[in-house]
Design a protein that fits this description.
10 strands, mainly beta, 169 residues, seven-stranded mixed β-barrel, 49% strand
Length: 169
């Protein structure tokens, strides 16, 4: 459980620091991610915009998609206890995080599935996903009702880089 929370925190740090950069949208390569958020279609293409990070020793896989050139719209999928092709679900094993100027805060969810259909270590990953995410709004209002967004019809294909999450000194 501790490793999962560390991985989730690391993913959040990557998203925050990554959103500060200007990321160019490049022409189509095999790297792509597409999905619907409450029925609204979203897509990103290009090896600089869609990529995977595999921390083999930590058994963590992250798939990241920068949805626009400004880098302020991003989706990240995290798989804990990653072992290759298969279906992952449950709060212990998956985490989806989406940031967008359309929503006041990030959307985070761990209720759903990520299905890996193809995986070649150090080269590529391909799969599908769907999850229910909660809009992360900090509220002190006792009557606050959480808002949820559904991520459906998700598909991705990306180049994978392999290495530890934290480089040893």
């Amino acid at each position: 459980m501790k490793q999962f929370y560390f991985s989730a925190l690391l993913l959040l740090v990557i998203l925050i620091t990554g959103s500060c950069k200007k990321i160019p949208v490049v022409e189509y390569t095999n790297s792509s991610i597409s999905f619907k958020v409450d029925g609204v279609y979203k897509e990103a293409k290009g090896i600089q915009n869609v990529f995977g990070l595999h921390a083999k020793e930590e058994k963590v896989m992250m798939i990241i998609g920068n949805m626009d050139a400004a880098g302020d719209q991003q989706i990240s999928l995290l798989i804990n206890n990653f072992h290759g092709v298969g279906e992952y679900s449950g709060e212990e094993n998956i985490l989806g995080l989406y940031t967008s100027p359309e929503f006041e805060q990030s959307i985070i969810g761990s209720v759903g599935t990520i299905k890996i259909t193809e995986f070649t270590e150090g080269k590529s990953i391909k799969g599908e996903f769907q999850f229910k995410g909660e809009v992360a709004i900090i509220s002190t209002d006792p009557n606050h009702v959480p808002e949820f967004k559904m991520f459906s019809e998700g598909k991705f294909e990306a180049k994978v880089s392999t290495g530890p999450i934290v480089e040893p000194d």
